[in-house]
Amino acid sequence: MQFDDRLATVLRMQAGSERAAHTQFRQLLDLAGTAPDGADGTLLSHAYTRLGELSALIEPIDRAAIVRDPSARLRNPGLVAFLAGQELPVASAAMARARLSEAQWERLIPILPIPARALLRHREDLPRRARDLLARLGVGDLVLPEPPLAQASRLHAPLPASPIPGEDGEEAVFDLDPALEIDSEANEGIGALVRRIAAFQRARKDATAIPANDAPRLPLGEQQEDSARFAPAFDFSTDMEGRIAWADPAVAPMVVGILLGSQAPEAPARADSATIAAMRRRQPVRAGRVVLEGAPAITGEWCIDAAPHFSIPAGHFSGYHGRMRRPAESRASQPAAQADSPADRMRQVLHELRTPVNAIQGFAEIIQQQLFGPAPNEYRALAASIAGDAARMLAGFEELDRLMKLEGGALELEAGSADFRAIVAETARQLDGVLRPRSAGLALTGEDTPCPVALTQGDAQLIAWRLLATLAGATSPGEELRIGITQDGAQAMLEIDLPAAFANRDDLFASAPAAQPQPVTAGMFGAGFTLRLARAEAAAAGGALSRKEDTLALVLPAAAGQAGDKYNKDADLAERIAETG
Predict the structure, then answer these.
(1) Which of its termini does the chain have fewer beta carbons within 10 Å around, N or C?
(2) Out of 78-87, 170-179, 339-348, 493-502, which region has the weakest mean confidence (pLDDT)?
(3) DSSP code for 124
(4) Cα separation of 99 and 80, whole Å?
């Protein structure tokens, strides 16, 4: 009651001045940060609402200073989650000042924004299980290794000067050394970018001597027109009215502002009745149909998959996040030149994407490590967040490349031997830390006997993680998935229950965005893509992955020696039984 009385008193105050707003923000922060378990939920909700209103009046740097103050007591996971969603200085201060128990960190970390997770990497006092959870969620050490002494002189060279006006009023040129070498494989993208910038500058200095068509160009979108001519798919988000507010840069100028969910004949976007009904009810849209009119790159029929997005913590509907893709028949009708060697085209796209992302990641790590001089903590925190996002993107590119090679027969898995039962048991134990707070779990049944498969340890771990993490991420609170592992001659089989969320999905291997945030994911492209990748890996190993009613069945070849030993033992046993009559 004492806590409720104090909170109600503070909420009755009027923040009529800047000083009063700062005082009330500090008081609410302290009360919400130390709220007991039995506190009035309605009062706390009002407190978060008032904190949001005060945040609009107080500059982020001032709020961050209040949060970072040694007297601030951040012991409530709800308040920490609220602050983690604010501006970077505030989120950084909250991640540094939060004092939670090990169980509270385990419940909080999976729902934190990715930048906030990256900021937690700098905390050396986190409990061990919280650090392990960050590692499982892909938030590891994001900094470059210490450079060898032989490279120290190059890596600690001064930064190139920024473009500044010259004496004649024209822009000065970067003083870059085109012979700059970067030996590290991770920094190849930066080296290539530096060389192209140097070539561009040399061309500017001697522009009159070089024909315009032959001059080197910066990688600033010279292929954008060709790539957008037949856009196969693009991501987008809408506002509350269903109007596209953001889209992939290649198509954004052509689609931003279009209102989805209309059937009017003159509308630039006309959706089918099922899509319109789902959008009116704020429900997910699955394989909807939309006809767009406008530029040639977007004109025609599209399939739409989208999920409603709701604000936190208020829960207000804020729009849809989704993807549009061309139907198969539309893609087949494109010119033959566009349909040739899709795998080669995709690999080229991935190569073009890796180069700038590698460069961004490299420069972010340089800032974060202060290799070229001191940097403010806010910039270092932002650089760490950018480096984490870049690492996640590069991991996604690797998954795409691996899937194309496996399905195209260009990649084969190495033969080996690994105890698949032990790997599955360890993976289930790791996921238990995420599932237990939701009263969900994975239950491995059957005898605890080794189950050797003809895969290397690394490949077997990858397949197990893709399957178990994908299905575990879709479990509902209180749901338990049973896992059974058996071995029959030359084959080992794993069967796992499908979560209720997958019961009505016709095609488990179809890519679709998650309807709501998942506590754990095995890939950045959704459950369907991850299961498709696991199916391709199983097929490359000589096995299979398929759905059997309400279960997912994985078949892998048994290790050669173990399978032969089993056949010999079975034959010997049969002989002994026959001799004894």
Answers:
(1) C
(2) 170-179
(3) S
(4) 9
pLDDT at 20: 85
Quote the tokens at residue 318: 């804020």
| Tokens 């931003």 -> residue | 256
531: pLDDT strictly greater than 70 = yes
Which residues neighbour 10 within 8 Å (Cβ) at sequence distance 6 or greater? 24, 27, 28, 31
Rounded to whole angstroms, how far apart are CA atoms 486 and 26? 59
**To which H or E segment does residue 432 belong?**
helix 420-435
CA distance 160 to 92: 29
Tokens of 552: 């997912």
Closest CA to 236 of 253, 252, 224: 252
Start-to-end CA span in the chain (Å): 81
Q: Which domains are assigned to the chain?
A: 2-136 (no CATH), 141-158+176-204+335-411 (no CATH), 231-333 (3.30.450.20), 418-564 (3.30.565.10)
- The pLDDT score that the predictor gives to residue 425 is 92
Please report which confidence band the pLDDT of residue 159 belongs to, taking 50, 70 and 90 as the band edges: very low
CB contact set of 482 (below 8 Å; sequence gap of 6+): 443, 445, 496, 497
Q: Can you spell out the DSSP letters for 445-491?
A: ES-----EESS-HHHHHHHHHHHHHHHHHTPPTT-EEEEEEEEETTE
- Distance between CA 92 and CA 529 in Å, rounded? 33
Which of 52, 104, 81 has its CA nearest to residue 437? 104
Q: Are 91 and 85 in contact (CB under 8 A)?
A: yes
Burial class (CB in 10 A: 0-12, 13-18, 19+), 478: exposed
Average pLDDT over residues 512-535: 76
CB contact set of 392 (below 8 Å; sequence gap of 6+): 114, 138, 524
Rounded to two decimals, the pTM is: 0.41
Q: How confident is the model at residue 172 (pLDDT cuts 50, 70, 90)?
A: very low
Report how far residue 527's alpha carbon sits from residue 216's, in angstroms, rounded to the nearest whole number.
Answer: 42
